[in-house]
């Protein structure tokens, strides 16, 4: 990214925002405009040129964000899957209406500036919905982008809707008008993410990070899914790497607008065993919650990310063992020391 480019980050104070802001500031010296519904953590403040606290469904906030020209948006703000099931209408409002506001903002900017604004959108494995465990076993572990897109959560429905909205704004928006500049929309579907620095809130893959962070603090934890539950996961440095690689990819190399990315697929029991290697006295047990289990059961055990590997040379740095030995365990040790 050239130095004169400006990046807008929504949901800046969230898990991905933390890693991304640090990278864009320290590694690339980008100008950052950040927004979040919560106040921005004090360590991030000096890295952002502007921070606006507010709700992305608020037109006034969108108007204010539109005052500074930006070249790329990382739209990270979202209500995750478990929280979304507790208030599906709120999830739709924030996840879909909020995204629509930002797509419109990006389209206006690109029209004004005469060049496409890059819109990087983190979607999720939640867009997949396998109807039952029998079908899931019959299908096999790995799911490709076009398969089983019948989500069982409002969050999954929202993410899939926004992928389609992004595609519409990228390819068809105002197609009746001559020579409209369209946005450059790029989405990736993340697996469950694990960070050493933050703990997610309101997600369903949260049992992975929650097990680790409880163990590191010597607190007991009852995992809310069965030991055999299996989901794809990735550590935060790889998630940031994926966002930046997709952002930097030459447009002509991208043969689709939405890409799976993943790293490894442990069962909950395997995560527990891995944590016990570093924290042998951790008090981790299983107490499955029927509803959250049903959400995990509807998600694929693994996803096929070969399109991302082919089109923008995606490759995770951290496999399961390396994630824990070189990133998670040392960093959480330090964090809770
Ligand atoms: N981590 C998300 C959730 O659990 C899935 O993308 O809701």
Description:
Helix 1 packs across helix 8 (236-248) and helix 4 runs parallel beside helix 6. The protein has 12 helices and 13 strands. The protein starts with 5 loop residues before the first strand and ends with a helix. It has a 7-stranded parallel beta sheet with strand order 3-2-1-4-5-7-11, with helices on both faces. It has 337 residues and is of the alpha/beta class. The longest helix has 26 residues, at 88-113. The structure holds serine (SER).
The CATH architecture can be named as 3-Layer(aba) Sandwich
CATH class: Alpha Beta
CA radius of gyration is 20 Å
Number of domains: 1
Task: Provide the CATH superfamily.
Answer: NAD(P)-binding Rossmann-like Domain
What name does the CATH topology carry? Rossmann fold
Proportion of strand residues: 15-25%
What is the approximate shape? Answer: globular
Strand line-up in the sheet with most strands: 3-2-1-4-5-7-11
Number of strands: 13
The major beta sheet can be summarized as: 7 strands, parallel
How do the SSEs run, as a string of H and E? EHEEHEHHEHEHEEHEEHEHEHEHH
User: Could you tell me how far the N terminus lies from the C terminus, measured between alpha carbons in angstroms?
Assistant: 37 Å
What fraction, in percent, of the residue positions are helical?
A: 40-55%
Number of helices: 12
Listed once per kind, the bound small molecules are: serine
Mean pLDDT: 95
- Contiguous uncertain segments of 5+ residues: none
Essential attributes:
single chain, alpha/beta, Rossmann fold, seven-stranded parallel beta sheet, two-stranded parallel sheet, globular, binds serine
